[in-house]
Amino acid sequence: MRNILIAAALASMILPVSAQTTRKLTANKSNEFGLIYTLPQTAIDVAVEAERTVRTRGEFYKYARKYLGIDPIMNDETVWTLKSVTINPRGTATTDNDTDDRYLVQFKNGTQPFLMLTEESIPLSINATEGPASPQKNTVPQPVKASPTPLDGPEARQAITEEMLQARSTAKRAELAAAKIYEIRQYRNDIVSGQADGMPSDGAAMKLALDNLSKQEAALTAMFIGTESKSTDVEMFTITPERPIAKGSAQEIIVARISATDGIVDPSDLSGAPIRMTLSAESLGELPVNEKGQPKAFPKGGLAYCIPGRALINIDYDGRKMAEDQLSIAQYGIVFGLDPGLFTDKKAPAYARFDPTTGAIVEMGTATSD
Fold this sequence. Notes:
This protein is of the alpha+beta class. The protein has a domain of 114 residues. The protein is 17% helix and 39% strand.
């Protein structure tokens, strides 16, 4: 079924159409009217987003219940948790040394059909300058840096009084800090009620004063209860599914792991808990049949394409389902071909567009003359 490759000079066949994304191959005398291309394998890009929480106990944590009546952070700790998993399929070519997915379509002499290919020589269309519409992809989250804590701003320095700096014991500094918190609260209430000495001149000045007081109170309170800071990390992993044994069979893959101390780590790092992907073969591609119900033969010199199968994909972590999707997978399918004569008919040449993720036909019709 698979065509024999011709050792043609690819350089003479390639005409740049888009500087970075596509190439145009035209069948002509220089390549003996044969075009070589690659059918894709389906890869699955998995974006793993983990959240890092850093908790730091405050200087006066021992006095939080006494002066503020609240429970503080008792110990410094860093905790990593899996926040989200995002999956997107992508077509990819095999390596240069693996020619199993390379094909030749042979046209009759004197015709000039053309293929539009990706940079990896994966077909986008034949006899059509535009490929299929780009599929909508799931949005991949971006890493987020840790935001400042209340102790990182200038208001924290403003809140510390000269008496607190001069106090020789932690207990005394805590007492003074608690007194300052209650003083700030009282002054804020006086401003809101209009009874404060030296009231702000207008609404904007009042807002500015109240914001500053709130930040000073937050900084002093953080000295008792501690601080918590969150950030996120995002890592990308690529999974290439294997061909399933049969319909209904499943493949389980450890995509990555989440380490309590290091966050996202490789699947081989046993310090982390596994993120598991399960691919279940819901359907396998089948050859088309003729009127007698027998599989059709591959057309001589035909244009190969893929009839993909479908997989149900589940990603789980620590007993939680993080992602689920149904995807067409080239490796779950089978290769068939189109009669090359369809694309060289002088009166009504056909065109076709292909899914670069699977190699499947997404549209066929009659080409219009330019």
